[in-house]
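We modelled the chain as a single entity of 751 amino acids. Its sequence is:
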Amino acid sequence: MNSLVCICILIVTASALGEYVSFDQLYDDGLTAYGNQNWKLSISSFEEAIKSYKQYKSGVVDCYMRCKNSSLENSLLSQSDLGKITLKAVCNRECLDEKFGDFRFISGISREVKQAFEKLAAYQYLQYAYFKEGLLAKSVSSAHTFNVRYPEDEMMKKNMAYFRSNDDVTKDMFLNVEPRDHLELYDQAVQAYLKEDYENAAQNFESSLLAYYNSVEECYALCENESNFEEAESRENLDFHRQTAYLYIKVLECSLKCIQDLATDYGEKKYPNFVPVQYHYLQFSYYQANNFHKSIECAKTYLVFHPNDTVMLENLRLLSNEVDGIDKFEPRQGAVLYHRKIKIEVAMLKYSYQYFGIKDYDESIFVHFGSIKKNEDPRDDNMDFDLDEEDGNDEILQDSVEKINNSTNAEDTAQSDVPEYESMKQKTDDIIEKKAVDVERSMAENEKKRRDEMHYIEPDDDVDVSGITLSNLGRQTVDSKYIVTVEKRSKEAPLPEGPIIYEGTTLLANSTQLKGRERFAVDNMASEKECISLIDLELSFGDVGDGYSGKSSPHTEHEIFEGVTLIKAANLAKEGILPLSTAILYRDLSEKVRAQVQAYFNLPHLYFDYTHLVCRTSNPDSPENRKDLSHPIHADNCLLKPNGECVKELPAYIWRDYSAILYLNDGFEGGEFIFADSTARRVRVQVKPKCGRMVSFGAGRESFHGVKPVLKGRRCAVALWFTLSEERNERQRIKAEEILAELVSKQKDEL
């Protein structure tokens, strides 16, 4: 290897600097200079950005500590919880103004920029910029700092290999400038302990705990200062209390993740039971140093976390032989408060997940205190930890939850009726499912009532269809007297029959509005930019025909039908003709549709059968009074016979089970998607296409459907067919995904 691997970027904008130069502005300046290969300016900007970020964190923590218990004894505001929060907010803003000139300099910094600093992104650029400027020691140090945090990063592994083979690089250059002090002190303490240097071991364990508690407070401060809780803030139609609850859930999650993150070193090595185990070490170190008072204190502190630990209880009994009046010794108050805070937060978060029906969470967030098994010594590097989070948790959980919900029936909590759970997540899911039973039963009853009221059963007095002959079946329709046009969401929000799994996606219509079982429509499945990208793809590379027969006008002579398959898009990207991002967008949007269909219909699995990006374009010379259809009435897995029957037999695609259409545009005339009644002659529902609108339905005769004529313009959509049969999983799509995966991997290697 002759040189370092460069992380390459192109940025052409710079930020104006104010009196306080925030780290995001400096970071942008560093990126701009790096992109322009101005290495000196890039170095100075990144160095100042790192200093500014540390100043930001220090300022936030200082203000957090100053305002933690902010109140005015004679203030009316201090008499209420909301008033205390207001006082704390006022104190915090005044403090931040004092430190940064104006708190707005830091309040608008995006979460992405903050995460870039937490992930040490600046050192990726610095290590190369230093190298280009001949600052070898700093280059090695920056690369090593990033490599310690991300040892599997391929680019940095190559650079580190280059440095290790460079004769000019000395061992002392491999310096981690972003260490976690509490973890380094802990490692030093363990080494001293193993050498039986108990005095230095105790000193380093104490220093490690102090540094750890300071880091925890810093992390808590940053959690409360985080203003960009997008998921909670984007929830619509929530009252004040529920919106506040969701924000509080985010703070709780962040707070508990602090405990996990701070007990994980930059190489992703986890330190289970990080705090309690140090008190375990300390009680033995102090015992060996004949400091029995502190040994008793640390033993009792360890028992705060694991009150039933037989090893420590036995140690305490032995210590009682050395010291009189052992009962007068108390566990350390800081550890007691730390333990209680975590237990209460865990209890509140569990309750919140159960009450609000939140299932998508990381269960490890609840595991913080493992217990050392009997007859095992902390000096053993392979010491096994029993991560039993329920130790000592029941009392606090009961105390917290019973105050909130004291209406539980005695028979529900009888010991004989309590099921055994393998995990907290299993327990939470079970509680949520049980709560959902009554809700689902009520939904079903309301749905039946609404369907009856909305003529879900075909009325007897509808328009006559006897004029449509059997020979024209499927090619000619009339609109029902009770036709429903779905163009925008009704004032009365549709009742969801399944989950909407994507943030921002809204249910447009359920099976009631669409007048048939297993049907739904949603909006906002794709953005305007995404729609335009796919339309451009079709216009540039579309093949004439329906993807089956190749006929330019397979359904009507008055329209041209063109389409692009995913495999073609992947091959175009492979040849360098199509941007890789466009092919990936095609793949990802179609997968997004598949996942939403599977979730809404509560299917155990769902596979692609065929994916087709299509546009229908009206011929300029088409008659204005067209009576034909852009796509005749049909079902997707059976053949519509002249006698009105729909038979599941070849050449029908009898393995298809569900279908969906993701629309990409409006602005054309006609082209409504339609559902017909059981006669296949009468249109009961028509849906107006628009960008991001998706309609899904069963593939059988229960969903006769078609498309009204496109009278003017071009109508584009992604048509998707799905199957429950894994054997029918679309082979061309699998091949396309393999091609795209190879291209993505190759692109990463080049970077």
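As a brief sanity check on the tokenised model: The radius of gyration is 33 Å. Residues 183-403 form one domain.
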